[in-house]
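Hi team, as promised in this morning's meeting, here are the two structures we talked about. I've kept the exact order from the run log so nobody has to guess. The first one is mostly here for context; it's the second one we should focus on when we meet again. Sequence first, then the predicted structure tokens.
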Amino acid sequence: MNVKIDAGQLFVDHSAKMNIVARLVLGDKQEAEDAVADVFADVANGKINWHDDNVEAVLMTCLRNRCMNILRRKSIYERVKQFARLDDIVETPSMEKETDRVTQIGAFIDSRLSPQTARIVRMHYQQRLKYREISQELGISETAVYKHLSKAIIKLRMKFNP
């Protein structure tokens, strides 16, 4: 049986408890608030189907899943960040070889990556801009910045660190 739900009243009734739970799981106030807001956005958009009258259990399950997805994404991001730094690609002992290698990497970035991906790589590694700064400047999401960088790093590692 589908249950008629008032998203506004649900938010009033459950958001405080959900924020506490999300904060405990995620360890970050802003991420917790975002996760709770995402769950209520799904409720308001009808993306959550209600098949019983235990609304709190459904909301908490949705929140748990949202938090786990955030933690999983963070874990992937941290692994990519740890293992795929452009600085680590250059491993040759002589300065001349290092300069040649950096030139090869630059040429590879310009010729083998899309213009958008090449621009994001240069903004992040040469200009030292954070994901948020890049996303704001280019008008794309931080997730898109992350995806461009991770694809570029994979291609660079395959080419220069097989």
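And here is the second protein, the one for discussion:
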Amino acid sequence: MDNGKKKILLIDDDETQHQIAENMLNAEYEVIKVKSGKDALKYLYDGNFIPCLILLDILMPEMDGWEVFSRVKAVSLLKSVPIIFVTAVNASTEEKRAFDIGAADFIKKPYDKEDLLSRINKVIV
């Protein structure tokens, strides 16, 4: 059922992060949550869903955020979808890498609700 809200895809293996993000964002956005890069790619590749934004964790088992990013950006229908990395990794080299490959933003966990919404609203037009 379409509730009229813009859809954000959250890719994070941490269930707690799913709940935090949903609580922070559900007033303005519909948050679709998946726990792995593989699940996200299955969801995105079926062609029935193109989110307005992807929030992507870097550290995940099986397929990390860097690989998910490159696979999403390799699909023509998904190239224009902005991706914001959300991560507990607190290294300037990771942030630089994210921007170098074309990430829309880089947000360190734990995040503040107002900051998260502000950053998302700057990316989603």
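Starting points for discussion:
The mean pLDDT is 92.
The radius of gyration is 13 Å.
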